[in-house]
Every structure is written in structure tokens, then in C-alpha cells.
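Two proteins follow. First one:
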Amino acid sequence: MVANGDSDGDKGNEERGSELPFSRGRCIALVSTVAGAAFLNTLGVQATVIILPTIGRALDIPDSRQQWIVSAYSLTFGCFLLLWGRLADVYGKRLIFIWGSIWVTVTSLVVPFVSNEIGFDVFRGLQGLGAAAMVPTAIGILGVTFPPGKAKNYAFSCYGAGAPLGGIFGNIFGGVLGEYLDWKWVFWIFAILAFIVTIAGYFVIPLPSLQQEPISIRKSVDWVGGTLITVGLLILLFALSEGNVVGWSISWIPILIAVSMFIIAVFVVWEWYLENKTERRPLMKISIFKNVRFSAANIIMLLFFASFNNFLIFATYWFQDYLALSVIQTTIRFIPTGVSGVIVAFITAQLLSRVRGDFLLTFGTASVSISSLLFAIPIPASTTYWAYGFPAMVLSVCGADTLYPALTLFTAKSLPPEDQALGGALINAVGQVGRAIGLAIATAVQTAVIAREKGLSVEAIGSTGQGLRPMDEALKAGLRSASWFNLSIGVAALVVVLVFFRGAGKIGGKH
């Protein structure tokens, strides 16, 4: 729990918490290894986005279905997070992390050899399944390994920097390999990196002790709850992703969304029943949401990453579709996010134990909101990148690398050791759902505005962008409308921070 003020014992606690669980070298290796999970996850997505047209030509996949090369991965990743998180808490975080990285390695090696569209999408989904095992267990490993103090703050800050760094290196990685080598090498080199993480994980992740992995939690796994939430999220994310392809007027899209909401509601009731009426351990204790700030933290994560993810996507559209810049030219414009990410991660580690939590979260949500604002206001297209694009890129990653470590650390401190991986899964699953919902709404806003400007129906615009060209005023209006929407959800996250985290103490302090 975030403290509401300093206590006389803070200094002594910080001194005890600053003690490293292992040698400094092994601690650095451990943090680098588990941060590799976040890095590889976003690198794999971004590198694939850059080479989508190339893969589409190689496998004869039409433009309207190319997004499934990315969506198949995101679907399995987002849907299996909670189940893998609980399995990691029950059977061992180290075991699940290593087997997840092995799975990613093998599937990444196989993907380029699959020559048909359906098979390729299936193996992309299998890649996401492995990543879903790695990411929440990485957070759980950090949560149970490091005691409260500076070392834990650094660990979570470094982990938080992994995702944005993976995004920028994914752009460079995919752009350079796709341009100068062969698109298949994107997956093969990705497999090599995953293999390195596997070997490092085997040697540096500590074996679980009885204190870290209580025997009592090994009695059972809530397979009913795991099935309900996995199927419910699968249907929801599928409907949201497919809605942007086939259009939202198709009758079965809202039907699938309604079905998914019903299944998720059944999951909540089932978990409440297990927790309150039986002796069985639920997949997720519903009572944890009685902690108002814990619930607010998940809402902030949903809203923030909807805004942040949309900012990156629509900034890419602005540079490539509207300004007609090449992949490499666009990639160069995203480099400040990587450089800033490293700097901000180091600074955040220092601030977590020195600055109040509400200040950090306010800064993070305000930063990403301003990033979207800079792309929303009517700045002439001829304006230099340094006047709006550069500050927007820097502010966006300042927001992400401040807010994500703060929220993951807060989650780790709010839950007992046996629920650490599940907590990591929950915070990432909420972010994934936020990304899907945010992108679906922003895309619908963009398409509606373009259709209005063109005097055409939404269906006529479609997923292929009929009648659009670089420097098209309708395209510009659509992109800026989407940015206004991104600003609104960023501001909504800011409001949640101001209401529910007002007066919050230092997240990096003692429990």
C-alpha cells in the first residue's frame, strides 16, 4: 500500500531494504534478464508492424487482413496473462518464465517457415502465448526477490523501461532488417534473443524457497475461472480487433462483445463464490478490489496505455500516411523515445522513494496527454519536427517510464508474495484491454471524420483508406480527431489520479 506520510522508521526500513539479496553482479543480471521479457514483447510487436507490407506480399495476404499478423499475437498475449500469472504463483515463477521463453524461442524459429496465411497467424498466436507466460512472472520474480528499498525501485524502473525500449529498437530492428536483409531474419534474430534470455534465466533466476512459494497454494488451480476469463477476453479482444477490419455495423461484432461481457461477469461471480463460500483458492480474489487505490491503479493503467499506445500508432500514421515518409525516416523520428526511456528510467528509480506517488502519477498522465495535444492542435504540416514531434516523443516516454514502474511497484506492494505474478498479469491484462478498446474507438473516430470530410459513408472509406493520399486534408482531420480522443482519455487518467491518489505517499518507501 502507498504510505500516506513518512514515519520515524522509514530511514531504518530503507537501510534494511537497500540490502541486495545477491551479489551486485547477479542482481544486475537478474533484472536485465526479467526486463528482457518486457523488451522482447514490445520488440516483437513493433518489428512485425514495420515489416507488415513485406510479409503481406510474401504470403499473398491482402491489406485488410495483415493486421491479424499483429493481432493474433496480441490476442493470446492479453487473454492468457491471468491464467499464466496464477500458474506461476502456484508452480513457480522461475519454471513458468523459463518454459515461456523456450516456447517463444521455438515458435519464433518456426514462424518464417510457415508459408500460408492461416498457419502464419496461428504461430504468431503461439508466440504471444509464450510471451504471456514471461511478462507477469517477470514482475512476480522482482516482487518476491527484492525487499522494499532502493534496489527494488531500480529493479522496477529498469523493468518499466524495457517496454518502450523494445518499441524503439523494434522499429529500428524491423526497418533495417526488412530493408537490407530478409524479413525472415526479424523472427530468427528474435528467436536468438529469446534463447539468450532463456539461458540467462536458468542461471540467474533463484530457485524458489518455501518462503517464496508457500506449499498451501499448490493445492489447486482454478481451471474454471481460468477458462472463463481467458475465453471472455479472447472473444472481447477478437471482436474489437475484427471490428476495425470488417466494420462496426456488422451485426455479429456487438453480439460477440455482449457475449464476452457476460462471460467476464460470470467469471467475477464465480471468483466471488470461491473466495467467500468455499475453501478453494480462486484464480483472483475479488476482495483485492476493495482497496480503492488498487482499483484506481488498474483504471489508470487501462486509460493511460490506451492513450499512450494510440499516440504511438497515430504518430506513425501521421509520418508515413500523411507526410509520406519512409519506414526508415519514421523510425528515426521515434529514436528520442528510446534515448529518453533510458534516462527517465534511471531518474524514476531515484524518485520513487523521494517523491510522493500522486506527483509521479500526475506527471506521467499529464505528459502523455500533452503528447497527444501536440499532434491534435492545428500546427501547419510544414512545421519542423523539432517544434512538435520531438517534444511529443520525449514527453510520451517520460509519461510511460514514470507511470508504469510506479503502478507495477504499487501493485507488488499491495499483494502478498503468493499473488505477485497474478498482480503482474492483472496490471498487464488491463493495459492490453485498454490498448484494444482505445484503438477500436480511436479508429472509429478517425474513420467517421474522414468519411464526413469526404462526403462518403464509413463503409466506403473502409480499412483500406479508399480515396486517401498523402497530404490529404480529410486524412489530416481524421488523424487529428483521433489525437483529440487520445488526449481525452489521457486527461481522464489524470483525473482518476487527482481524485483517488491525492495525498499518496512515496511508492518506493516501506509497505
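Second one, unrelated to the first:
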Amino acid sequence: MYRLSIIILLLIALSFTPALSEQCHPQDKQSLLQIKKELGNPSNLSSWLPTTDCCDNWKGIHCTATQTQAYRVYWLELYDLNLPKPYPIPPSIVNLPYLQYLLITNTDNIVGTIPPSITKLTQLRRLHIRYTNVSGPIPEFLSQMKTLEYILLANSKFSGTLPSWLPSLPKLTGIFIEGSDISGTIPDSFGSFSNVFRQMILSGNRLIGKIPATLGNLNLQVLDLSENMLEGDASMLFKAGKHMEQIYLNNNLFSFDFGKVEFSKTLKMIDISNNRIYGTLPKELTSLMHLQSFNVSYNNLCGEIPRGGGLKYTYESSYAHNKCLCGAPLPSCK
């Protein structure tokens, strides 16, 4: 009888071992299960089970130890969800107080607007909403979220204009606002991002007008203004002494003398195709030893194509449909 009692006690102890060793904070688990319910319990969140540890192989979930808590959810990625019908961004997301990364991607049936309650996520560093049907203007209440380091709002139904308050976010390193219905001009304030700001991607919208000259003061690594209706002078974006690696101005209405621009030695990608840019190709292009991709096609450029540096790897298509460019890889100059 004594031996049987010991065995029963051991079995009871073993039955409680998973719960005792679970890293997932109970509050976070409850919030995540509520998020799953608010999304109609999609089948590809089948790993989210009450009986398992949310910090251990739940799809799209990562946990980390904090200074005051053992383990809390800091990363939530909702992607490729096969939702049974349209749902808004789940309200219970704001009940994950240690969340730093929120990524909602590749799910057409996520609809509605960004909820004001998102400001309760006081540690959020990255907000990604991409390939969804989330709509509406970029909300001003995001300006309260001073912890944000990167904002990606792309290939969805966002509309309205670019918010002039974006540079007020002190930790912002990049914005990726692409492939939506954002219209109007680029605000003058966009030349006043902090010195940690490195990426500005505004491609595939309906932006119009001239760009602020102050954009030339930014020390960017990546600048993408392609596929808009921007016009006028963009020569100030090319400056020596910067750390620019990629610049895309293609498919706009820019018009300036390309022969007078200066180049960052770190440039790897240049695409100014499909504009109204004129002048010659500067010989300084041959000093860009890191250049991997170069496209000036469909412009009004003239003169002999310089050879050397990264330009020696370019093809005829990189220079096609200009006013009077000549020399290899195009026909020789007369």
C-alpha cells in the first residue's frame, strides 16, 4: 500500500512538471489565445494550444527574458493566415505589454484601420503591416509612440498624405511606406529626421510635386522615391561624403543636369530611369568601386559613356532610349 501511494504521488508530480517548467507568462498566453479567437481560430495557428508553452514553437511567437520578468512575448508575427472571413487587427494585441515587434503580413482578410489602442504598446520598436487590406490614413496617434524605430506600412490600402510629424519620432531609423494610395507632396519636415535615420522608402504611391531641398541634408543608406509623379530637381540627393548605398528615383518626372551631381563612394545601386534627366554621365561614376546596378535608361542624356569601376559590368539596357548617349555598350560615338 505504501509503495502504491509513492507511485501515485510520482505520477501526480510528473503530470504537473510541464506547467511548472513552462516559460510562457500566463497573461501573455491568455492574450495570445484571445488573439487567435478574434481571428476566427485559423488552422495555421494550430500550434497555439492552451496545453503547450507559447514560448516554444508557437508560430510567429518569440519570447525573451526581461529585467523584471522571467519570459515575456516580445515578437508577434501574424502572417499567411487563412482567415475564414475579414477581421480587424485583433484588439487583444495591446494586452502584450512587452511587445517590441508587431508584424502583420500577407493576409488579405485583415481589414479596417490601425486602432488607437495600439499606443498602449509602450515598448513597440517595429510596426509592420504589409500585404493586407488595412486601410485609412496613417494615424496621428502613432506620433505618441516614441519607442518606434521602424515603420513599414506597405502594399495595403493606406491613403491620405505623408504625416509631417514622422520626424518627431526620436528613435526612428527608417520608414517603408510603399505600394498604397498615399498622395500629395513630401512634407518639408522630412528633411529633419534625426541623425539615426537611414532608410526612406516611399515608392509606388501617388506622390506629386517637387521634393524638399532639405532631403539632401539626410545621411541615408537607402532612398527609394520610385514610381510616383515627383518632378523637378533631385540633384541634391547625390552628395559626396555621405553613406548612401542605394538610390532609386526611377519612373518619375525628375529633370536636372546629371553631369553636375556628386556621388557617395559607397553607392551600390543607382536607378534614375524613366525620367527627364539630361546632361552627360560624369566620369566620377568610374570611381564607384562598389557599384552593382546602374540604370539611366529612358532619359535625355547625351555624350560618351565612361567605362571603368562598377560601370564595366553594365549592359546596353542600362543606357537605352536616351537622347544621344554613345560608346560601349551602345554604338560608338561618331
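SUMMARY FIELD: The chain has two helices and 22 strands. The helical segments are 2-21, 26-38.
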